[in-house]
Amino acid sequence: MKDVMIRILATQTGDNPREQTELAEFSTEGRLDCHDGSGTLTYPESELTGMEGTVTTISFTPEGAVLTREGSVTGRMDFSPGERNTFLYETPYGSATVGMETKRYSSTLTEQGGTLEIEYVIDIDHAFVALNQMHIQVTEKKEY
Question: 3-class SS at 131?
Fold first, then answer.
């Protein structure tokens, strides 16, 4: 595993495609374990994301990824392009079953870092809620 810097930009578009909302843009330290384009990326969530006390792990391959959260917020999201699945989203305020369909997935992650881009639709009872996009940039942590 390697110490890395992770920059995440997450956006969401609701019913009006002209109104894109930035959910979060932040940088954090994390750990990357990657071999031949597959591996794991792990980082702690912060107060900024509203999930302080949660650890996020993204298990990725060139074809798809699974994001799991453990701690104050728990959940598992399967990003398999062209597939719809459901996941249980649990927070301190309650839980909900949410539907998700991955529209686009791209990974250039290697042992040195790279990018992970995911575009997915969230629905509740098959009713559109939002189009979400995540852009994750991973770079080697520089020691000074």
Answer: strand
The residues spanned by each domain of the chain are 2-140
Q: Is the CB of residue 39 less than 8 Å from the CB of residue 110?
A: no
Q: What is the pLDDT of residues 19-33, one digit of tens each?
A: 667 677 889 999 999
Which residue is listed with tokens 């309650």? 94
Rounded Cα distance between 72 and 54, Å, is: 5
**pLDDT on residue 7:** 96
DSSP state for residue 74 in the 8-state scheme: B
For residue 102, give both structure tokens: 């991955």
Class in CATH terms, 2-140 = mainly beta
Are 77 and 58 spatial neighbours (Cβ–Cβ below 8 Å)?
A: no
